[in-house]
Specification:
Blueprint (H helix, E strand, L loop, with lengths): L2 H14 L10 H10 L3 H14 L7 H13 L20 E8 L2 E8 L4 H4 L3 E2 L10 E4 L6 H33 L4
Parallel strand pairs: 2-4
Antiparallel strand pairs: 1-2, 3-4
Helix pairs in contact: 1-2, 1-3, 3-4
């Protein structure tokens, strides 16, 4: 979770609960420290659940932690979509990198840290209950800012052309059915 996302969660708790202790010395800091270790989407769901259960008092960190684990472990059946188009990953949420190793070339998937869809692909098996070595790393680990800027520019150009083709195709459909706009 980023700093701004942690602050958003704390603001939700402040605004959603009738009584809270965030003004007391050290309370805000402890919540903030705890939230930085969490995934924003799962914590947002946990806060929603906590507010549903009891919005009179801000939940303790231990209660939030329990709700967070439940939210994180529930299998998501809904499809995560970006609110805005992500030009870095072309709204796919991931990218690839080819690494040359002793046994040959290997293609690894990387998640896009710039959009919600990409963040949903973030995975670290080393932090799971049943530990594993599998993990998905961010694009920023293997690509420089310049390379990411180039990806963004190329995808934006491709996206604009796609939008133009779709608009032209839609005009053709409208002309065939005889509707004027």
């Amino acid at each position: 979770m980023t700093n701004s996302e942690a602050e958003k969660i704390i603001e939700r708790l402040k605004n959603g609960c009738g009584q809270h202790r965030f003004d007391e010395s050290g309370v805000w800091k402890e919540y903030y420290r705890f939230l930085l270790k969490c995934n924003y989407t799962a914590m947002d769901e946990a806060v929603s659940e906590a507010l549903e259960q009891d919005s009179r008092f801000a939940p303790a960190i231990s209660a939030l932690s329990k709700l967070y684990r439940e939210a994180k472990n529930t299998r998501r059946t809904d499809v995560i979509k970006n609110e805005k188009y992500c030009p870095v990953c072309d709204d796919k949420g991931f990218g690839f990198v080819t690494k040359k190793e002793a046994m040959g070339n290997y293609v690894y998937v990387l998640y896009c840290p710039f959009c919600e869809k990409g963040k949903s692909f973030a995975y670290d098996g080393r932090e799971c209950k049943d530990k594993s070595l599998y993990h998905v790393e961010p694009l920023t680990k293997y690509y420089s800012e310049v390379e990411i800027k180039e990806m963004r520019q190329a995808n934006l150009e491709r996206w604009e052309k796609r939008e133009e083709r779709e608009a032209i195709a839609m005009e053709g459909v409208i002309e065939k059915i005889g509707v004027r706009i």
